[in-house]
Protein backbone atom coordinates (compact mmCIF):
# COMPACT_ATOMS: atom_id res chain seq x y z
CA UNK A 1 0.00 0.00 0.00
CA UNK A 2 1.59 3.28 -1.12
CA UNK A 3 1.23 6.30 1.14
CA UNK A 4 2.64 9.80 1.09
CA UNK A 5 3.72 11.25 4.40
CA UNK A 6 2.32 14.73 5.03
CA UNK A 7 3.66 17.38 7.39
CA UNK A 8 1.47 15.88 10.10
CA UNK A 9 2.78 12.35 10.75
CA UNK A 10 -0.65 11.38 12.10
CA UNK A 11 -2.19 11.77 8.65
CA UNK A 12 -1.23 9.56 5.72
CA UNK A 13 -2.43 10.80 2.37
CA UNK A 14 -3.20 7.77 0.27
CA UNK A 15 -1.57 7.70 -3.13
CA UNK A 16 -3.81 7.51 -6.19
CA UNK A 17 -2.98 3.85 -6.82
CA UNK A 18 -3.59 2.77 -3.21
CA UNK A 19 -6.47 0.54 -2.16
CA UNK A 20 -9.59 1.79 -0.44
CA UNK A 21 -9.25 2.20 3.33
CA UNK A 22 -12.36 0.06 3.88
CA UNK A 23 -11.64 -2.59 1.29
CA UNK A 24 -12.97 -5.95 2.39
CA UNK A 25 -10.45 -8.67 3.02
CA UNK A 26 -13.06 -11.37 2.39
CA UNK A 27 -12.89 -13.28 -0.87
CA UNK A 28 -16.15 -14.13 -2.62
CA UNK A 29 -16.93 -15.92 -5.91
CA UNK A 30 -17.44 -13.64 -8.92
CA UNK A 31 -21.22 -14.09 -8.95
CA UNK A 32 -21.39 -12.70 -5.42
CA UNK A 33 -20.90 -9.22 -6.92
CA UNK A 34 -24.01 -9.48 -9.11
CA UNK A 35 -25.97 -7.95 -6.23
CA UNK A 36 -24.25 -4.65 -7.03
CA UNK A 37 -25.56 -4.85 -10.59
CA UNK A 38 -29.07 -5.32 -9.25
CA UNK A 39 -28.70 -2.34 -6.89
CA UNK A 40 -27.34 -0.28 -9.81
CA UNK A 41 -30.33 -1.17 -11.99
CA UNK A 42 -32.76 -0.22 -9.21
CA UNK A 43 -30.80 3.00 -8.64
CA UNK A 44 -30.99 3.80 -12.37
CA UNK A 45 -34.73 3.13 -12.53
CA UNK A 46 -35.19 5.42 -9.52
CA UNK A 47 -33.20 8.15 -11.28
CA UNK A 48 -35.35 7.83 -14.41
CA UNK A 49 -38.66 7.82 -12.50
CA UNK A 50 -37.62 10.77 -10.31
CA UNK A 51 -36.58 12.70 -13.45
CA UNK A 52 -33.06 13.17 -12.08
CA UNK A 53 -31.61 12.32 -15.49
CA UNK A 54 -33.71 14.93 -17.27
CA UNK A 55 -31.57 17.57 -18.94
CA UNK A 56 -34.47 19.99 -18.51
CA UNK A 57 -34.67 19.36 -14.73
CA UNK A 58 -30.92 19.95 -14.43
CA UNK A 59 -31.19 23.19 -16.43
CA UNK A 60 -34.07 24.30 -14.16
CA UNK A 61 -31.79 23.73 -11.19
CA UNK A 62 -28.92 25.79 -12.61
CA UNK A 63 -31.33 28.55 -13.68
CA UNK A 64 -32.84 28.56 -10.16
CA UNK A 65 -36.36 28.11 -11.57
CA UNK A 66 -37.29 24.84 -9.82
CA UNK A 67 -36.80 23.26 -6.40
CA UNK A 68 -37.02 19.65 -7.68
CA UNK A 69 -33.30 18.88 -7.98
CA UNK A 70 -32.42 20.85 -4.85
CA UNK A 71 -34.97 18.77 -2.96
CA UNK A 72 -33.45 15.52 -4.24
CA UNK A 73 -29.87 16.62 -3.50
CA UNK A 74 -30.85 18.06 -0.11
CA UNK A 75 -32.60 14.83 0.85
CA UNK A 76 -29.51 12.84 -0.15
CA UNK A 77 -27.26 15.11 1.94
CA UNK A 78 -29.51 14.78 5.01
CA UNK A 79 -29.79 10.98 4.66
CA UNK A 80 -26.01 10.76 4.17
CA UNK A 81 -25.27 12.94 7.21
CA UNK A 82 -27.61 10.92 9.42
CA UNK A 83 -26.09 7.68 8.12
CA UNK A 84 -22.51 8.82 8.81
CA UNK A 85 -23.53 10.03 12.29
CA UNK A 86 -25.15 6.64 12.99
CA UNK A 87 -22.13 4.70 11.69
CA UNK A 88 -19.72 6.76 13.82
CA UNK A 89 -21.89 6.77 16.94
CA UNK A 90 -22.65 3.04 16.97
CA UNK A 91 -19.33 1.91 15.44
CA UNK A 92 -21.36 -0.07 12.95
CA UNK A 93 -19.85 -2.98 11.07
CA UNK A 94 -20.49 -4.36 7.61
CA UNK A 95 -22.94 -7.20 7.16
CA UNK A 96 -19.90 -9.49 7.29
CA UNK A 97 -18.74 -8.08 10.64
CA UNK A 98 -15.85 -6.00 9.33
CA UNK A 99 -15.31 -2.58 10.97
CA UNK A 100 -16.20 0.57 9.02
CA UNK A 101 -13.67 3.38 9.36
CA UNK A 102 -14.47 6.93 8.29
CA UNK A 103 -11.31 9.00 8.06
CA UNK A 104 -11.51 12.78 8.45
CA UNK A 105 -10.78 14.70 5.27
CA UNK A 106 -8.78 17.91 5.17
CA UNK A 107 -10.25 20.83 3.18
CA UNK A 108 -8.05 22.37 0.50
CA UNK A 109 -8.40 24.95 -2.27
CA UNK A 110 -8.23 22.29 -4.98
CA UNK A 111 -11.70 21.17 -3.94
CA UNK A 112 -13.07 24.60 -4.87
CA UNK A 113 -11.49 24.45 -8.34
CA UNK A 114 -12.63 20.86 -8.82
CA UNK A 115 -16.15 21.71 -7.72
CA UNK A 116 -16.33 24.61 -10.15
CA UNK A 117 -15.11 22.45 -13.04
CA UNK A 118 -17.51 19.66 -12.05
CA UNK A 119 -20.47 22.09 -11.80
CA UNK A 120 -19.62 23.72 -15.13
CA UNK A 121 -19.47 20.33 -16.84
CA UNK A 122 -22.72 19.29 -15.16
CA UNK A 123 -24.48 22.47 -16.33
CA UNK A 124 -23.22 22.13 -19.89
CA UNK A 125 -23.85 18.40 -20.36
CA UNK A 126 -26.79 17.84 -18.01
CA UNK A 127 -25.05 14.83 -16.51
CA UNK A 128 -22.99 13.96 -13.49
CA UNK A 129 -21.45 10.52 -12.84
CA UNK A 130 -24.51 8.91 -11.19
CA UNK A 131 -27.19 9.84 -13.71
CA UNK A 132 -24.75 9.45 -16.60
CA UNK A 133 -25.18 5.68 -16.69
CA UNK A 134 -28.95 5.95 -16.21
CA UNK A 135 -29.10 8.34 -19.18
CA UNK A 136 -27.21 5.83 -21.32
CA UNK A 137 -29.48 3.04 -20.07
CA UNK A 138 -32.53 5.14 -20.95
CA UNK A 139 -31.33 5.33 -24.55
CA UNK A 140 -29.65 8.73 -24.73
CA UNK A 141 -26.72 7.57 -26.87
CA UNK A 142 -25.19 11.03 -27.18
CA UNK A 143 -24.29 10.78 -23.47
CA UNK A 144 -21.46 8.41 -24.49
CA UNK A 145 -19.57 11.59 -25.45
CA UNK A 146 -20.03 12.85 -21.89
CA UNK A 147 -18.92 9.47 -20.48
CA UNK A 148 -15.77 9.48 -22.60
CA UNK A 149 -15.10 13.08 -21.57
CA UNK A 150 -15.50 12.15 -17.89
CA UNK A 151 -13.08 9.26 -18.31
CA UNK A 152 -10.61 11.52 -20.11
CA UNK A 153 -10.96 14.19 -17.42
CA UNK A 154 -10.30 11.61 -14.71
CA UNK A 155 -7.20 10.42 -16.56
CA UNK A 156 -5.94 14.00 -17.01
CA UNK A 157 -6.45 14.67 -13.29
CA UNK A 158 -4.55 11.50 -12.40
CA UNK A 159 -1.72 12.45 -14.75
CA UNK A 160 -1.35 15.99 -13.37
CA UNK A 161 -2.40 15.20 -9.78
CA UNK A 162 0.95 15.96 -8.17
CA UNK A 163 1.16 19.37 -9.91
CA UNK A 164 -2.36 20.51 -9.00
CA UNK A 165 -3.28 22.56 -5.92
CA UNK A 166 -4.22 20.29 -3.04
From TrEMBL:
It comes from the Bacteria. It holds the Pfam family DUF6691. The keyword Transmembrane applies. The chain crosses the membrane at residues 36-56, 68-87, 112-132, 138-160. The keyword Protein biosynthesis does not apply. Keywords: Membrane, Transmembrane, Transmembrane helix. InterPro entries: DUF6691. This is Sulfur transport. It comes from Raineya orbicola.
Amino acid sequence: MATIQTQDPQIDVRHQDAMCTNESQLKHPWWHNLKYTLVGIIFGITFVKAEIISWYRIQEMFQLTSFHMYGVIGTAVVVGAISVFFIKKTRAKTIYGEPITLDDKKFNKGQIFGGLIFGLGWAITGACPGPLYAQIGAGFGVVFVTLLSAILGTWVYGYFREKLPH
